[in-house]
Design a protein that fits this description.
It comes from Klebsormidium nitens. This is Methyltransferase FkbM domain-containing protein. By secondary structure, this protein is an alpha/beta fold. The protein has one domain (83-343). It contains nine helices and twelve strands. It has helices at residues 14-34, 107-111, 144-147, 191-197, 218-221, 254-261, 280-288, 291-294, 324-336; strands at residues 43-47, 54-58, 124-128, 131-134, 177-182, 204-208, 229-233, 236-238, 251-253, 269-274, 299-302, 340-343. The strands form four sheets. The chain has a six-stranded parallel sheet, covered by helices on one side. Strand 5 (177-182), helix 4 and strand 6 (204-208) form a beta-alpha-beta unit. The chain starts with 13 loop residues before the first helix and ends with a strand.
């Protein structure tokens, strides 16, 4: 208290003395820190595809420099030898257009309700086998996050996550747990999303893709505690078996394959994702008439293709005369039949 007294003649010496003391302590701490080894944090937060969810991954320092996300697919010029990889998602006349931003949005809708519109907490619309499921939202092209401007990836999946069947029912206790990806595209496009996000440890993954872009990262997957057995098929998914085309790609009757080749049983966990570029209009009506196959699927994620002005730049004009109303009717019929169905964006 003497140092604070107005009658203390030594009070003016305090600032200089204090600064010298702090400086000395700083030098001492610096010497200690320079000789201390701190554990190196080699964690990385990487953006998973295509949900926009952040996944914390334990990885090596070398792997930190390797991106785990494919860049948005850009359609090359029509004279490019890889132009076929864009079909039919992006026709060649959409040069330079990114898949992630191809859908047109209503600016007014992005402002009100915009940032506060429901996306992860969508109200339940109905029940499938007694369990609640999300509303379809055709006015938002089934893509609430993107339509509201909350994300900038038309293929955002956050709104589906709360409604996964695996969040409500124990699907992981089944002895056989199978994920089938029809129209897999690249490994990161959807297979990786299900591995990271769906609450089941799959022991089998069967991926169908017409092109050769599906390449699992075998070395990374091998480091998992229980890596799944992944089988890739180059085939055209449909309702009949066909001999190889001129490009060497055969057709496959997918319902027959599920029942007879994979021999899926009702007691198995079987999750199916379907993005087969319009062939769903052949496969799904047939599925509705096949009670045996219908009973095998626990949950279906399907991208239903249709013609709509908002999706014209995504190359969807070729799906006319199918409309968004047809898509809603198809999904509702699947739900009424007892199949838990979500629209895959």
């Amino acid at each position: 208290m003497a140092l604070l007294s107005p009658h203390n003649p030594e009070k003016g010496k305090l600032p200089g003395l204090a600064l010298l003391t702090v400086f000395a302590v700083g030098l001492l701490m610096g010497a200690v820190i320079s000789h201390t080894t701190f554990p190196r944090d080699v964690r990385s937060v990487t953006l998973t595809s295509p949900s926009g969810l952040l996944t914390l991954q334990q990885t090596s320092s070398a792997a930190l420099r390797r991106p785990l996300v494919d860049p948005p697919l850009v359609c090359p010029p029509c004279n490019s030898t890889v132009c076929a990889l864009c079909q039919p998602r992006l026709p060649c006349n959409c040069v330079g257009l990114k898949v992630s931003t191809c859908m047109s949005r209503d600016p007014a809708l992005m402002e009100v309700p915009g940032a506060y519109g429901k996306r992860l907490g969508l109200p339940a619309a109905e029940r499938v086998n007694g369990l609640l499921i999300e509303e379809l939202l055709p006015k938002l092209q089934f893509r609430p996050e993107y339509s509201y401007g909350q994300i900038h990836d038309v293929e955002g999946l956050g709104h589906i996550v709360p409604w996964l069947l695996g969040n409500q029912v124990d699907l992981n206790s089944a002895r056989r747990r199978v994920f089938m990806d029809l129209g897999a595209n690249r490994f990161e496009t959807s297979t990786a999303w299900f591995m990271r996000t769906y609450p089941v440890e799959f022991d089998e993954i069967h991926a169908f893709e017409m092109t050769t872009v599906f390449i699992p990262p075998i070395e990374k997957l091998a480091r998992l505690p229980n890596p799944p057995n992944i089988t890739a098929y180059r085939a055209l998914v449909g309702i009949r078996d066909l001999p190889p085309s001129a490009s060497g790609v055969p057709g496959i009757d997918i319902l027959r394959f599920i029942k007879n080749d994979l021999r899926i049983k009702e007691e198995d966990t079987f999750i199916l994702k379907m993005d087969i570029e319009g062939a769903e209009w052949d496969v799904l009506p047939l599925l509705l008439r096949d009670s045996e196959a219908l009973a095998l699927i626990d949950e279906l994620f399907v991208e239903v293709h249709y013609g709509d002005p908002a999706l014209a730049q995504c190359g969807w004009n070729e799906y006319y005369p199918r409309t968004i109303d047809d898509a809603v009717e198809l999904v509702r019929n699947l739900r009424k039949a007892g199949l838990r169905t979500h629209l895959w964006p």
